[in-house]
Design goal:
This protein folds into two domains: about 5-185, Rossmann fold (3-Layer(aba) Sandwich), CATH 3.40.50.300; about 225-330, Zinc Finger, Delta Prime, domain 3. It is about 50% helix and about 5% strand. It is built from 16 helices and five strands. The N and C termini lie far apart (about 45 Å).
C-alpha cells in the first residue's frame, strides 16, 4: 500500500493505546494484517513523543529506516518468498545460498530465521526506543519454528514487542495464541474501501466491481489488479468458463483461477436459492440448468484442487483441466 487506509489507522491507534508485549492480528486475507502490523511496529519504534497516541510521525530517523527496510531494532520474520516480494532483505547466508542456486527461497518461516530473531530480542536496542519483531504470515511457522518462539513469547526481554499477523489463526499452535493479545481485523465499509481504492489509481466503477469480486477485501482488489483483472474481465469470466476458454485466464496462477471458479460456483448456488450474490452481478451469470448437487460436488473438487495448486504440476495442463471441468459442469443439465 502506498497510503495507510483509514480503517487500518483507526485499528492501529486503538491497539497502541493498550498494554501488551505480544499481539496476534487475525482475520481473512485481504484485510490488511501486514499493514496493521507494520503500522504498530512503526509507532513503537518512532522517535516522536506522540507516536503511541497519534501513530508514527513518518519523518524521523526511525521512520525513515523502517521505510527503507533497514531498521536495526526491527526483526521481520517472513517466508523468504514473501520477504523478496515485499522488498525486505534476506540474511547474508540465505541470500548467498539462493544466489548460488543451492536452494530455492523458502515458503515457510525457517528455524534459522527464528533463532536469529530470538538472539535479536536479547540484544540491547540500537536507537533507544525498544525493539520489535514482526511475524507474517504467522501460520507459515512450522511446529519446530513455533515452538522455538514460545519461550521468548512467554518470558520476553524487557524492551521487545511482538506482533504476529495471520490469515489462518486456526493453523497456529494454541500455545502461541494463548500468549498473545488477540485482535480480529475490522472490515471496512464499502464506502471507505472504494474511496481508498480510488486513491490507488482505480476508477470508481472498477473499485466497486473488484471489491465485490474480492468479497469486500481491499488488499485482494490490488492483488487482482496486479494480475490484470478489471471490471470487464470479471464480468466476462462466467461466460468464458461456460465455453471452457482456458486462454481467458492463461496469465493467472492456478490458485487464482481456482479461487475465481469457487466464487462463480458459490454465486450460482446463491442464485438457485434466490439468496444475495456475493461476488458477481446477476446479469453476468449465465442461465443454467445445473443441479445444486452438481454445483456442490464441483465446489468440493475445487477445494481439493486448491490444496495442491502450488505444487509443481504442469501449469498449462492444470489450467486446461480446470476450464474443461467448468465447461462440463456448467453445460450439464439436471
Amino acid at each position: 500500500m502506498t497510503a495507510t487506509a483509514s480503517w487500518i489507522q483507526k485499528q492501529s491507534l486503538v491497539l497502541l493505546s493498550q498494554q501488551g508485549h505480544a499481539w496476534l492480528l487475525q482475520g481473512p486475507s485481504g484485510l490488511g494484517q501486514y499493514e496493521l502490523a507494520t503500522s504498530m511496529a512503526s509507532a513503537w519504534l518512532c522517535e516522536s513523543e506522540t507516536a503511541l497516541s497519534q501513530g508514527a510521525c513518518g519523518h524521523c530517523g526511525s521512520c525513515h529506516a523502517l521505510s527503507v527496510h533497514t531498521h536495526a531494532d526491527l526483526m521481520v520474520l517472513m517466508p523468504e518468498t514473501i520477504l523478496l516480494e515485499l522488498g525486505w532483505p534476506l540474511s547474508e547466508k540465505a541470500q548467498s545460498e539462493i544466489d548460488n542456486k543451492t536452494r530455492k527461497p523458502s515458503k515457510e518461516i525457517r528455524i534459522e530465521a527464528m533463532r536469529d530473531a530470538i538472539e535479536f530480542s536479547q540484544r540491547t536496542n540500537a536507537r533507544g526506543r525498544g525493539k520489535a519483531v514482526l511475524v507474517f504470515p504467522a501460520e507459515r511457522m512450522n511446529h519446530v519454528t513455533a515452538n522455538a518462539l514460545l519461550k521468548t513469547l512467554e518470558e520476553p526481554p524487557g524492551d521487545v514487542k511482538f506482533v504476529l499477523a495471520t490469515e489462518a489463526a486456526h493453523q497456529l499452535l494454541p500455545t502461541i495464541r494463548s500468549r498473545c493479545l488477540i485482535h480480529t481485523m475490522a472490515w471496512p465499509s464499502e464506502t471507505e474501501a472504494v474511496q481508498w481504492l480510488e486513491t490507488q489509481s482505480l476508477s470508481k466503477d472498477d473499485a466497486i466491481a473488484l471489491l465485490k469480486a474480492a468479497g469486500g477485501r481491499p488488499d485482494e482488489v490490488l492483488k487482482q489488479r496486479t494480475l490484470g483483472q478489471s471490471m470487464q474481465w470479471w464480468s466476462k469470466f462466467p461466460k468464458a468458463m461456460l465455453a471452457g476458454d482456458a486462454s481467458y485466464c492463461s496469465d493467472l496462477p492456478a490458485s487464482e483461477v481456482i479461487d475465481a471458479l469457487q466464487k462463480l460456483c458459490h454465486d450460482l448456488l446463491m442464485l438457485q436459492t434466490q439468496a444475495t450474490l456475493r461476488y458477481f452481478n446477476e446479469a453476468d451469470l449465465p442461465k443454467l440448468k445445473v443441479s445444486s448437487a452438481q454445483l456442490t460436488a464441483w465446489f468440493k473438487r475445487l477445494s481439493q484442487a486448491a490444496k495442491t495448486s502450488e505444487h509443481p504440476f504442469n501449469a498449462g495442463l492444470m489450467l486446461e483441466a480446470l476450464c474443461t471441468e467448468a465447461r462440463e459442469v456448467l453445460n450439464s443439465a439436471i
